[in-house]
Amino acid sequence: MYRLSTYLRCLAPLCEQATQTISSEALAKAAGVKPTQLRKDLAYLGTFGTRGLGYDVKDLYQQITNELGASRLRPVILIGLGNLGLALLSYRGFEKEGFEILAAFDIEPGRRRNKEIKRPVYGMNQLAEFVRAHSVKMAIVTVPAEAAQGVVNQLVECGVLGILNFSPVVLHVPKNVMLNNVNLAIELENLSYFIRE
Amino acid sequence: MYRLSTYLRCLAPLCEQATQTISSEALAKAAGVKPTQLRKDLAYLGTFGTRGLGYDVKDLYQQITNELGASRLRPVILIGLGNLGLALLSYRGFEKEGFEILAAFDIEPGRRRNKEIKRPVYGMNQLAEFVRAHSVKMAIVTVPAEAAQGVVNQLVECGVLGILNFSPVVLHVPKNVMLNNVNLAIELENLSYFIRE
DNA sequence: AAATGTGAAGTTGTTCACAGCT
DNA sequence: AGCTGTGAACAACTTCACATTT
Q1: Per-residue pLDDT of chain B (197 residues; tens, 9 = 90+)
Q2: Is residue A100 helix, strand or coil?
Q3: CATH class given for the domain over B74-187
Q4: Do A83 and B84 touch (CB under 8 A)?
Q5: CATH of B2-68, one of 3.40.50.1820, 1.10.10.10, 1.20.58.100, 1.10.600.10
Q6: What distance in Å separates residue B167's CA from the closest CA in chain A?
């Protein structure tokens, strides 16, 4: 569930300090949620704190890590090396959470980009082979809107099961494929909607 | 509400074609939602379609545009010119939805960035003045995690009411300020969580 | 006949209140 | 006494079923 990574991030610094235990109230405050919600979330994982005391920091950290499957490094590929794609390639946050962008794909792999790229860049014709060879299950899509559905079809075809899409279009995928949309303009729209004076 | 911009995007191409009218079923399919949900959403806006026929495309487009307040160009500023900040600066999607990034701010405004920037870049000391002078109400924050809360405090201080935050930290703002978080790692995390075999 | 608008039912997620450990 | 775990109340959102209009 989407709040777990937040809890994990709040827990990390405490883990390094010698903090043994934390109450739901304190952690909830740090994470910006209600204590009861935090407890419900953790209870759902079968996590057990100690009544009258709180949760063991290290133990809790470990349990959430397990639940998220973040113990192993999860491979991802990125399709579309425009401005946004390039920025995401060098975004440190992904690896901090246990993801590794193995490679990038673009229709113009050799195009001059004014920045040194730290990952291999392939043409779209090599997609299928790469995905199968590395059993890639997740992809980040940052191609132009017109190209997005085509790319997604290819990915699905190759066996990719999770797609994080940044193109501002409604995409269609089979039921067994999970599609997660990030639409930057819509995020701004939401703000805008709530602050009109 | 967050689905309205999707409807708008689906409607736009129909508007240009001479399509007079569209049924909730057709539009819902294009937008990837259930027809009943679409109708509820539109009914909530007080929009009226014609029974037996559908909705008038142009009229609907206009009503949603009004509701979103997208008729005027809404000014935004961007704080933090790292990789992601730069990418967002040249992201065309914002202006397509009626937002204009007026300027960018950074602690090192003069830093060499290997890309031509089309907006003025100022130092943080000029933030307050600029925000007041242009009555900016929205800001996009793409600074490093450590700096985020400080920057947000400054923004709130200056009177900014809506903040779109990309830093992976839990930020605290007064109740009258709307904070919208985009955490790229969490989006991937969600995918990952649902596709484990 | 076709398609909307909407009350009612269903579903999901959040908060409360408090019993029960330590 | 302090703090967790959880059933029950509550709230928000989604879907259904169908009466109603063109």
Answers
A1: 789 999 999 999 998 887 899 999 999 999 999 999 999 999 988 878 999 999 999 999 999 999 888 777 899 999 999 999 999 999 988 998 899 999 999 999 988 776 788 899 999 999 999 999 999 999 999 999 999 999 999 999 999 999 999 999 999 999 889 999 999 999 999 888 888 75
A2: strand
A3: alpha beta
A4: no
A5: 1.10.10.10
A6: 9
